[in-house]
Amino acid sequence: MPDKLYKEALFKDVSKIKPSKETKATLDYITPHFNKAIKRAEGNRKNFGILSVPVSSPEVADKSLNQSVYNNYLRWIEAGKPNKFVDFFRDRWAPLGAENDPKNLNQNWAPNVRESLKEQLGPEEYERWKRYNLVKIAKETYNG
What we know:
The protein is mainly α. It has one domain. It is 60% helix and 0% strand. The chain contains six helices and no strands. The N and C termini lie far apart (39 Å).
């Protein structure tokens, strides 16, 4: 169970945070991969696990997923990058022990996202992501 500061970080308002150029570049690189991995992990083509807003189209789902990756990446940075990003994201998106998860399926969410990322990225790039806590991409990763 996450401690109080960790829980606060999960729900921090990041609307006023101005990300650095490096953070923006990282987000531009990781967001499409995470978006696709989340959709696959959720396996729900109706709303892809999005519960915060009504999902009326694939475009709305993509926009919501992209914003969720963006916001949670900023929260993760602000919290001092605890855990790996995929686990931090899971704790917000598909928390273990959630009331709406009586069969404890959320325990599969992070492993499913990791597996999807591994397939998308290939073994070499995935290993790079792992070295940087799964998503803290080194400059050479997206420039070279």
